[in-house]
Amino acid sequence: MFVTDNANVDLKHHTMRNVPKKHVGILSGGQVYNYGNTSDTVVSQTPGDFLKRFQKTYGGDQALFFGTFPAGARTPEPESGAAVPASAGAPAPESAHAATSSRLQIRPQTSGEKTDYFARLDGGPEYYVARSVSYLTYRGLHQPGKMQSGPRYRTSDFKPQYETVAGVLGVISAGESSGFFNRLNSYDRAAFTFGFFQLAAHTPNDNLILFFRRLAAENSAFQDLFPELKVVDGVLHRLIGGHGVSLERPSPRPGHPSEMNLRDFMSYLNPEASKVDDQELSVAARLVHLADSDPGFNSLQVNVAAGITMRKMRDRYAQWYSLDGMSDLVCTAIADIHHQGRGTKTEVRSALASSSTVSGKVAALCLIGESKYASRCATLKKALKDAEKDGHLGISVYDKASGLFRPATGWPD
To answer: For the segment 310-328, what is each residue's pLDDT rounded down to a tens digit?
Structure first.
């Protein structure tokens, strides 16, 4: 049994939003056994008292939910988003992708050695997509700073729903994308990276594949522009010739047999790593259009990023660094370091041990990777300072028992 706001639950589809304001208990013998945050023990209450307690704590319109999964329910994989029954994954007509392509016009514009790409969908206004760039042996797409535009992530917009986590995402996105929801690149070994949180395509059951699963199952605008993608039994498929082909089969990275990549998903997004090709441009143009025009698309970006961040906070960072009771500022700095991959566990442990104060720990963490990523480290330092000044961070500590951030003054009774 769990308690949460009525607005968070869709009984018709047997789904609920992943929000911090929920509490779970076990109903047995007329009592709800649940974790008491204040007493730090398991407590028992009648269902009525359980509801009253969290109505007082959370406000809104709290309700109790319980039961078993009925046949045909859309049950999500961990952090993966909603799945759909196999019957809902019937192939779309073979002409669907071609019809979508005919709606999209892409115009290259070359100046000197630079080629920028612009797109127009359904005869609408032209918009900027990206520039062709080279990196090592790769050639792909990138958006120069002067060309960036469109909706941006703002912590205040998402704080009512995600509370402290909204501040965490704001800091990380400052370094990843300057908060632009339409940010993309396709010029490195990840093949394709997209969004305000820069979700990469190469990682199985993580990052961009999680976002695409959710989009294909839930977002009607995405379904309209990507009719060739369907979620079948919780797995993203591409419809080819009347058959669904999984895009989620892990395969070893060439030369690195212990690292598994999503080669099929990467190839769907970016078939030719050494050049900018039509499929890569088509995917990029469609995604930029959605980020520029559909608030629901961007809200889903945030939801996926929040889920990924808190899963890793619980399963990795809290275990590696004993974060129970640690300031949200310290936790955010750690999450930023590992999201970019610019520091080792040894370096983080050393930084944490270098000072007994929050400010000292944060200062040491902001120096990790500075020799190679000076700009990113400076951005982290400034973003943390701004988030604290604006009241988004510096207000909570990580709570290991719940896997959430709790007020620094303690959970409300």
So the answer is: 999 999 999 999 999 999 9
